[in-house]
Description:
Chain A is of the alpha/beta class. Chain A has a single domain, classed as Rossmann fold (3-Layer(aba) Sandwich), CATH 3.40.50. In chain A, 36% of the residues lie in helices and 11% in strands. Chain A has seven helices and five strands. In chain A, strand 2, helix 2 and strand 3 form a beta-alpha-beta unit. Chain A is globular, with a radius of gyration of 17 Å. Chains A and B meet through strand 3, helix 3, helix 4 and helix 5 of A and strand 3, helix 3, helix 4 and helix 5 of B.
Amino acid sequence: MKRAVVLLSGGLDSSTVAAVASSDGYEIFALTIDYNQRHRIEIESAKRVVKSIGAIQHVILPLNLRLFGGSSLTDDWEVTKNVPVDKIGNSIPTSYVPARNIIFLSVAFAYAETIQAEKIYIGVSAIDYSGYPDCRPEFLTAFENMAKLATKVGNEGGKISIVAPLVHLDKTAAIKLGLKLGVDYSLTHTCYDPADDGLACGVCESCLLRLQAFKNAGIKDPIKYA
Amino acid sequence: MKRAVVLLSGGLDSSTVAAVASSDGYEIFALTIDYNQRHRIEIESAKRVVKSIGAIQHVILPLNLRLFGGSSLTDDWEVTKNVPVDKIGNSIPTSYVPARNIIFLSVAFAYAETIQAEKIYIGVSAIDYSGYPDCRPEFLTAFENMAKLATKVGNEGGKISIVAPLVHLDKTAAIKLGLKLGVDYSLTHTCYDPADDGLACGVCESCLLRLQAFKNAGIKDPIKYA
């Protein structure tokens, strides 16, 4: 059976993508990066999703991006501490984490090359992407080409491809796709600013996008909100 | 004063590159990745080098690539345990660490973007590169272009450039350059298979390349060997 690495945050998008990889016939090697994000509770969701899809392996890699800061998602500094609320726009928000998807894909390539996977699944969308530049297809293509030059597998004529099944879908379409594939969205976590007990806030940028998408899909979001 | 991130392993090449960055007039922000390599003793060398060049900041980022394995430098598995000895050749050796320089540059971009550095210095050489594909100039160019697409700074018309001062130099030329810039090579560490007390073995691929280079430069290597 062929193998794929799935970058799994525990959120709605990556959980949907894991189901796509599974329905594409791949053995799933899930990779979760614990970047010391303030919403680390999503890692618990990732574990639940891994169980529900029956992955072969789940690597949780600590990679403390808080050492650098530069984002409202990782910064301890008061000045950028507030996660942006109600800011669904076109500019790059403060929740942008410098080079996050470059780092995540890099690590995914290391994992994929080691286990001889031929695909890396990632849940980015160029539609509902909150203005993050590292969610666009031209970035993914550039990354794939760069990685072909840098890896042993690439230099031996092989290739590890990046698959982004949601890249041209909005979040509503992603939810509809996931429901068709049997994704249990009650297991997922989306909020950037959860309460201490893990409950989603319902007012951060990320919650607003999620709630709007479920509303548009005509379905009740199965998670609880504070 | 302008800022540069220097990827500093504590080895001969990266220590030379740090001196180049300094002589190019940059404030130095040193970045060392603790990837749980078996020769982690090199991190102590990195700390000594940072002191000697007077860097502004030194971030040591734990990033445990041993979780994946796939290399004689990180693997615990018996089958790949032996670091290659006396194998200076053209094929990709077992000490190749999957996607290592992709990962290191990714993290360097995150750091550089956060501190608003304009350059990233890296000590790769396409001449004495042990057959590693991620040490060639075409890889560095592809990475730079990919990162321009993925980062906020790139999307705002700026650019973070990768500088590889040794890319067209062999190790002998690197040593001559470093000596001209006042690098104290007694602080550096090169061995892939050091003894428990940190002494270099003198027989691994990495030691052989170093010893040969000092010999060619007509200088005695100032470090001790077991």
